[in-house]
Amino acid sequence: MYETHTKNTYQEFKKFSNALLAARFFNVFVPLLALILVVGLALLIINHNVSVLIGELIGCAIAVPMCFIMNKVRVKRVYDSNRAVRNETYKILFNEDALEVKSQNFNLTIPYKDLHKIIETKTNFYLMAAENQGVIIIKANCNKKLIDFIRSLS
User: Fold this and answer.
1) What's the mean per-residue pLDDT of the chain?
2) 127 CB contacts (<8 Å, ≥6 apart)?
3) Which of helix, strand or coil describes residue 18?
4) Which of 44, 61, 69, 87 has its CA 20 to 30 A from that of 135?
5) How far is residue 32's CA from residue 65's CA, in Å, rounded to a whole number?
6) Angle 102-104-11 (CA atoms, 0-180°, nearest 5)?
7) How far apart are the C-alpha atoms of 108 and 128, rounded to whole Å?
8) Confidence (pLDDT) at 98
Protein backbone atom coordinates (compact mmCIF):
# COMPACT_ATOMS: atom_id res chain seq x y z
CA MET A 1 0.00 0.00 0.00
CA TYR A 2 2.43 2.71 1.26
CA GLU A 3 6.15 2.97 1.89
CA THR A 4 8.48 5.41 3.63
CA HIS A 5 11.89 5.43 5.27
CA THR A 6 13.43 6.74 8.48
CA LYS A 7 17.07 7.21 9.39
CA ASN A 8 17.59 6.52 13.09
CA THR A 9 19.73 9.53 13.94
CA TYR A 10 20.36 10.79 17.45
CA GLN A 11 18.14 13.81 16.70
CA GLU A 12 15.21 11.60 15.68
CA PHE A 13 15.70 9.32 18.68
CA LYS A 14 15.81 12.37 20.96
CA LYS A 15 12.53 13.69 19.49
CA PHE A 16 10.99 10.25 20.02
CA SER A 17 12.10 10.13 23.66
CA ASN A 18 10.93 13.69 24.29
CA ALA A 19 7.49 12.88 22.85
CA LEU A 20 7.25 9.90 25.22
CA LEU A 21 8.38 12.04 28.16
CA ALA A 22 5.81 14.71 27.29
CA ALA A 23 3.04 12.10 27.17
CA ARG A 24 4.15 10.68 30.53
CA PHE A 25 4.57 14.15 32.00
CA PHE A 26 0.97 15.12 31.31
CA ASN A 27 -0.46 11.73 32.25
CA VAL A 28 1.57 11.08 35.41
CA PHE A 29 3.59 14.05 36.65
CA VAL A 30 0.98 16.80 36.28
CA PRO A 31 -1.65 14.92 38.34
CA LEU A 32 1.03 14.00 40.88
CA LEU A 33 2.19 17.61 41.16
CA ALA A 34 -1.43 18.74 41.49
CA LEU A 35 -1.96 16.21 44.29
CA ILE A 36 1.16 17.42 46.10
CA LEU A 37 -0.03 21.03 45.87
CA VAL A 38 -3.55 20.13 47.09
CA VAL A 39 -2.05 18.34 50.10
CA GLY A 40 0.15 21.37 50.75
CA LEU A 41 -2.83 23.72 50.58
CA ALA A 42 -4.82 21.44 52.90
CA LEU A 43 -1.97 21.45 55.40
CA LEU A 44 -1.76 25.23 55.08
CA ILE A 45 -5.46 25.56 55.89
CA ILE A 46 -5.33 23.04 58.76
CA ASN A 47 -2.01 24.06 60.35
CA HIS A 48 -1.63 27.63 59.10
CA ASN A 49 1.95 26.69 58.24
CA VAL A 50 3.17 28.41 55.06
CA SER A 51 6.60 26.77 55.20
CA VAL A 52 5.19 23.36 54.14
CA LEU A 53 3.61 24.87 51.01
CA ILE A 54 6.76 26.85 50.20
CA GLY A 55 8.84 23.67 50.62
CA GLU A 56 6.55 21.78 48.24
CA LEU A 57 6.71 24.56 45.67
CA ILE A 58 10.51 24.58 45.85
CA GLY A 59 10.57 20.77 45.58
CA CYS A 60 8.34 20.87 42.49
CA ALA A 61 10.45 23.64 40.96
CA ILE A 62 13.51 21.41 41.35
CA ALA A 63 11.87 18.08 40.42
CA VAL A 64 10.40 19.10 37.05
CA PRO A 65 13.66 20.33 35.47
CA MET A 66 15.49 17.34 36.97
CA CYS A 67 13.14 14.97 35.12
CA PHE A 68 14.05 16.61 31.81
CA ILE A 69 17.79 16.64 32.61
CA MET A 70 17.75 12.97 33.61
CA ASN A 71 15.83 12.13 30.43
CA LYS A 72 18.44 13.90 28.30
CA VAL A 73 21.25 11.86 29.89
CA ARG A 74 19.26 8.62 29.56
CA VAL A 75 18.45 9.25 25.88
CA LYS A 76 22.11 9.76 24.99
CA ARG A 77 23.16 6.66 26.91
CA VAL A 78 20.47 4.46 25.34
CA TYR A 79 21.18 5.72 21.82
CA ASP A 80 24.94 5.23 22.20
CA SER A 81 24.52 1.73 23.66
CA ASN A 82 22.61 0.36 20.68
CA ARG A 83 25.27 0.32 17.97
CA ALA A 84 23.33 -2.03 15.69
CA VAL A 85 20.66 0.57 14.91
CA ARG A 86 22.50 3.88 15.22
CA ASN A 87 22.22 5.91 12.02
CA GLU A 88 20.53 2.98 10.30
CA THR A 89 17.88 3.65 7.66
CA TYR A 90 14.66 1.68 8.01
CA LYS A 91 12.30 0.92 5.17
CA ILE A 92 8.76 1.03 6.49
CA LEU A 93 5.97 -0.70 4.59
CA PHE A 94 2.32 -0.11 5.39
CA ASN A 95 0.51 -3.24 4.26
CA GLU A 96 -3.19 -3.95 4.46
CA ASP A 97 -3.21 -5.25 8.02
CA ALA A 98 0.31 -4.76 9.37
CA LEU A 99 3.31 -2.49 9.48
CA GLU A 100 6.67 -3.92 8.34
CA VAL A 101 9.98 -2.38 9.35
CA LYS A 102 13.03 -3.60 7.44
CA SER A 103 16.71 -2.81 7.81
CA GLN A 104 20.05 -4.54 7.39
CA ASN A 105 19.92 -5.78 10.99
CA PHE A 106 16.30 -6.81 11.46
CA ASN A 107 12.80 -7.26 10.10
CA LEU A 108 9.76 -6.52 12.23
CA THR A 109 6.04 -6.93 11.56
CA ILE A 110 3.46 -5.24 13.78
CA PRO A 111 -0.23 -5.88 13.07
CA TYR A 112 -2.14 -2.60 13.26
CA LYS A 113 -4.50 -4.12 15.82
CA ASP A 114 -1.49 -4.61 18.14
CA LEU A 115 -0.39 -0.96 18.10
CA HIS A 116 -0.44 0.37 21.64
CA LYS A 117 -1.03 3.96 20.52
CA ILE A 118 -0.03 6.52 17.92
CA ILE A 119 1.62 9.78 18.94
CA GLU A 120 1.60 12.63 16.44
CA THR A 121 3.88 15.64 16.73
CA LYS A 122 4.51 18.54 14.40
CA THR A 123 7.25 16.63 12.51
CA ASN A 124 6.72 12.92 13.23
CA PHE A 125 4.42 10.03 14.02
CA TYR A 126 5.40 7.45 16.61
CA LEU A 127 3.64 4.13 16.09
CA MET A 128 3.94 2.57 19.51
CA ALA A 129 4.21 -1.21 19.79
CA ALA A 130 4.43 -0.87 23.59
CA GLU A 131 4.54 1.92 26.15
CA ASN A 132 8.22 2.64 25.42
CA GLN A 133 8.85 0.98 22.03
CA GLY A 134 7.81 2.42 18.73
CA VAL A 135 8.54 3.12 15.10
CA ILE A 136 9.55 6.64 14.10
CA ILE A 137 7.79 7.95 10.98
CA ILE A 138 9.12 11.26 9.66
CA LYS A 139 6.25 13.24 8.13
CA ALA A 140 8.56 14.94 5.62
CA ASN A 141 9.21 11.48 4.12
CA CYS A 142 5.48 10.74 3.71
CA ASN A 143 2.97 11.73 1.07
CA LYS A 144 -0.45 13.10 2.05
CA LYS A 145 -2.20 9.75 1.52
CA LEU A 146 0.20 8.00 3.90
CA ILE A 147 -0.24 10.73 6.53
CA ASP A 148 -4.03 10.38 6.23
CA PHE A 149 -3.70 6.58 6.47
CA ILE A 150 -1.59 6.76 9.65
CA ARG A 151 -4.09 9.18 11.21
CA SER A 152 -6.91 6.74 10.36
CA LEU A 153 -5.16 4.04 12.41
CA SER A 154 -5.64 5.89 15.71
Assistant:
1) 84
2) 99, 110, 115, 118, 134, 135, 137, 150, 153
3) helix
4) 69
5) 15
6) 80
7) 13
8) 94
